[in-house]
Design goal:
Elements lengths: L14 H7 L2 H4 L3 H17 L5 H20 L11 H13 L12 H37 L4 E6 L2 E7 H26 L1 E2 L15 H7 L4 E2 L3 H6 L2 H27 L7 E2 L18 H24 L13 H25 L1 E2 L1 H9 L5 H10 L4 H18 L8 H7 L7 H4 L2 H6 L9 H20 L1
Helix pairs in contact: 3-4, 3-6, 3-8, 4-5, 6-7, 6-12, 6-19, 7-10, 10-11, 10-12, 11-12, 14-15
Bound molecules: arginine (ARG).
């Protein structure tokens, strides 16, 4: 276990200390970014005359060789190195000799790891956005398909007023659009290059930080070396955005589970996205939706952990910060998995239109519209509310719906009712009369669907 920093030590590190301190088991995840950062670093060192062109070429060739061999599996990343940075540097020196020892000129592992983590996070933000986009494309397709699929809208999980499946799904579309734009915001704010900050106080070499930043596609260099090596705000922002994505997936999963239940039967999940029971042969369980709901806790946990890790750390770098990695990696992988599976699950589910429509019909979801009918015929709203309350009570006793009452029965309770009440409280009317923007009526929905269409088109083309 040769260490980068062995010079001033006279004793071997205690084995338990070594194990406790090492990060290779998880930071190997960004070997690619570590090498990418080193290539940019030496390119800049040669441009500024700190290294010769010849030295630069040898180092880059060596680094490219390491990258290829790691990727092909001929060079396994093993625990004899403390971290991924030591692994790359040691292997470079093994390959190209003493010139490899010049790689770390003007650099510290503190700014190196800050860079690696940013490069990794940046790539993952792009991957997360792609997965959200795929989900939004699916939601958009479902919105178009179900513009006249009537269903009950709920408050307190009690039937409230009729909506459409298109409108219900449209609510999630809004949430995922916000999630997408939150990720874009984070990227914009974090995209400044920390390399060149050194351990904490910059370096004495004439580094060209603008150049390194440009080579790595950052907007520019960070402006304070102490903050550069100890800023983890962008990870907290990302974990917060990931937590919000999980809230949305979890709420939607909960609805899928309810809708897929034997009692509701609004939808049926595809066999490929369901699981069975080892004992009960009849069972077909929504495990994927349940796991997505369950995994939400892990992602919140990562956010809480990192907030706590960062809260008392004095400037600048402290080893506590190494704890950012496993949390972030796990959270990102979890969210990516959930997004991909959720999209597959809802794009294959079968919608039972009839069942949904019947359920909307049978829960007095048109009671508000019956009251509105009376108001339109001159009855004050509070009286209308009370009259329709009596109608509902009557129907509950008779086990019928408002649509099943005879005109005589209506008029016994209130003579204002006429034949046109049936049309006024039909589900179609209840939904289609609601056409202010944001409401479930078809005209309003078509406008919103067109807005999403234009939005998705730019994202899908971009
Ligand atoms: N493994 C470390 C981390 O993840 C890398 C930086 C090490 N720096 C140091 N001074 N020990 O944070």
């Amino acid at each position: 276990m040769a260490q980068l920093w062995g010079g001033r030590f006279t004793k071997e590190t205690n084995q338990l200390v070594y194990n406790f301190n090492a990060s290779i088991s998880f930071d190997q995840k960004f070997y690619h970014q570590d090498i990418e950062g080193s290539i940019a670093h030496v390119t800049m060192l040669a441009k500024t005359g700190i290294l010769t062109e010849e030295e630069k070429s040898q180092i880059i060739d060596g680094l490219m060789g390491i990258l290829q061999d790691v990727e092909s599996g001929t060079l396994p990343i093993t625990s004899e190195y403390e971290d991924i940075h030591s692994f790359v540097e040691a292997n470079l020196i093994k390959r190209i000799g003493d010139v490899g020892k010049k790689l770390h000129t003007g650099r510290s592992r503190n700014d190196q790891v800050a860079l690696d983590m940013k490069l990794y996070t940046r790539d993952e933000i792009v991957a997360l956005k792609e997965l959200i986009l795929a989900l939004m494309n699916t939601l958009h397709r479902l919105m178009k398909e179900h513009i006249d699929t009537y269903m009950p809208g709920f408050t307190h999980l009690q039937k409230a007023q009729p909506v459409t499946l298109s409108h219900h799904i449209g609510a999630y579309m809004e949430m995922f659009r916000r999630d997408y734009s939150r990720l874009t915001d984070i990227y914009e704010r974090m995209n400044y290059c920390p390399l060149g900050a050194g351990a904490l106080a910059g370096t004495t070499y004439p580094l060209d930080r603008e150049l390194t930043a440009k080579l790595l596609n950052f907007y520019g260099p960070t402006l304070n070396s102490m903050d550069s090596v100890s800023d983890r705000d962008y990870l907290i922002e990302l974990l917060s955005a990931c937590s919000t994505i999980m809230i949305h997936l979890s709420r939607f999963s909960e609805e899928i589970i309810i809708w897929n239940s034997n009692e509701y039967r609004f939808i049926e999940l595809d066999d490929a996205y369901s699981t069975g029971s080892s004992i009960m042969p009849q069972k077909k369980n929504p495990d994927i939706a349940e796991l997505v709901r369950g995994k939400t806790g892990r992602v919140y946990g990562a956010l809480m952990s990192l907030l706590t890790v960062m809260k008392g750390i004095p400037l600048a770098y402290n080893k506590d910060m190494q704890e950012d990695k496993e949390l972030t990696f796990d959270a990102i992988d979890t969210v990516k998995g959930c997004l991909a599976l959720f999209t597959g699950m809802i794009s294959t589910m079968k919608v039972n239109k009839e069942v949904m429509a019947n359920s909307a019909k049978n829960g007095f979801t048109n009671a508000t519209d019956a009251a509105d009918y009376l108001v339109n015929h001159g009855v004050p709203f509070r009286d209308a509310h009370s009259i329709v309350g009596q109608l509902v009570l009557f129907c509950i006793e008779k086990e019928i719906s408002l649509d099943d009452m005879t005109l005589e029965q209506y008029q016994t309770i209130c003579p204002v009712f006429q034949e046109d009440i049936y049309d006024a409280i039909s589900m179609k009317t209840c939904v289609e009369k609601r056409n202010t923007i944001g409401a479930p009526g078809q005209e309003a929905m078509k406008q919103v669907i067109a807005i999403h269409e234009a939005y998705l088109k730019t994202l899908n083309e971009g």
